[in-house]
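Batch manifest, entry 17 of 40.
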Amino acid sequence: AVQLVESGGGSVQAGGSLKLTCLASGNPIRSHCVGWFRQVPGKEREGVASIDMDGRTTYLDSLKGRFTISKDNAKNTVYLQMNSLKFEDTGLYYCAAGDPANVWGQGTQVTVS
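Output type: structure tokens
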């Protein structure tokens, strides 16, 4: 089974950028649809972006143009580039594999001030 580990979170000022990394092990990332999700305080967890086995991407409408999901099959890694960050982007960001998602990482915290 695939295991996922997120990294790259941190604290950033509004308008700044972060790049999150989801490193997979145990199974090639090319065999899975992978998504990024976030848990914002006071709100339900929501899907942010996803990338399928063929590299096709989907995004939460409100984030289009600011966030970009990509993957490197050779590195078994999926990325989430986040630009023009806003205070409301603060939250715990998870990557997950499967459609529907059934394998989750532990999350990485993003704090925008």
